[in-house]
Specification:
Largest sheet: 2 strands, antiparallel
Number of strands: 2
Distance between the termini: 50 Å
Radius of gyration: 19 Å
Helix content: 55-70%
Order of helices and strands: HHHEEHHHHHHH
Number of helices: 10
Strand content: under 5%
Structural class: mainly alpha
CATH class of the largest domain: Mainly Alpha
Length: about 260
């Protein structure tokens, strides 16, 4: 496995000019590195048995310290994603030992997608409330960057699945509770309904209008978190996910609109 398997760097596309001189805490950087490596293991870019690049190579690629790399590797080991063989290197061991996981076969139908949305309503509404209470200015910058990427993707005629998921992941990160981040990474971008249901590679005008409406719901969540209004953030997230669930129900013929 070449060192390039871990691209892109953590900060790519995220830092604003105002952020350039800011230094983030090693713990935050370690969690970002866990996110980056873990996602590549889950999507197969780093396969079982692959050897991770050396500490020095990861440091150079992601622009982090040795302490950050070692903390990230320790967390990946604890999750069962990698193992270190002393004197040899660190190797991918699989998808970890977590008992809970949603695979592609569990998102095969519209009914499956609706079931996952129901799960997300239970988890992400509370995450949004916690994020409103605990978020940092840096968390807000990351959320805003994800929303800007959603808008750019829509304008370019793309489905915006990845930045959409990134927005939800940044909310999980803003809870300052690593379990929310780990769970979101376990679920992965496939939990965004159109990752399963997307059709044409170029959006129609109707699809573009729909996605702009969805991003408007994102903006309401962001505004509540920015205002540190936990109740409003909880309500905005519930509305967003419930709307998505009802749209899927209508598509599957399970119920009337608003049912």
């Amino acid at each position: 496995m070449s060192d390039s398997a871990l691209h892109p760097p953590l900060a790519a596309g995220r830092a604003s000019d105002a952020d350039a001189g800011r230094r983030r805490r090693p713990r935050t950087l370690a969690l970002e590195l866990v996110d980056a490596i873990g996602e590549r293991i889950r999507d197969g870019r780093l396969a079982t048995g692959d050897k991770l690049p050396t500490e020095a190579a990861i440091m150079a690629e992601f622009g982090v310290s040795r302490t950050v790399v070692r903390e990230a590797i320790s967390k990946l080991q604890a999750s069962g994603l990698v193992e270190t063989r002393h004197g040899i290197g660190t190797f991918v061991t699989g998808l970890g030992d977590a008992g809970f996981r949603i695979g592609a076969d569990q998102l095969a139908t519209l009914r499956d997608v609706i079931a996952v949305l129901e799960l997300r309503i239970g988890i992400e509404t509370e995450a949004a409330a916690l994020a409103a209470a605990r978020r940092s200015d840096e968390d807000l910058r990351r959320m805003r960057g994800a929303l800007a990427a959603v808008s750019a993707a829509i304008d370019a005629g793309r489905d915006a699945v990845e930045p959409d998921f990134q927005f939800h992941l940044e909310i999980a990160r803003a809870t300052q509770n690593p379990h929310f981040i780990e769970l979101m990474n376990t679920l992965g971008a496939r939990i965004i309904p159109r990752a399963r249901l997307a059709g044409a590679s170029v959006l129609s005008d109707e699809q573009r209008h729909y996605l702009k409406r969805v991003n408007g719901e994102h903006e309401s969540i962001f505004d509540a978190i920015a205002a540190r209004d936990a109740d409003a953030a909880r309500a905005a997230m519930r509305t967003h996910l419930a709307n998505s669930r009802e749209r899927r129900r209508r598509a599957s013929g399970e119920g009337a609109p608003g049912a």
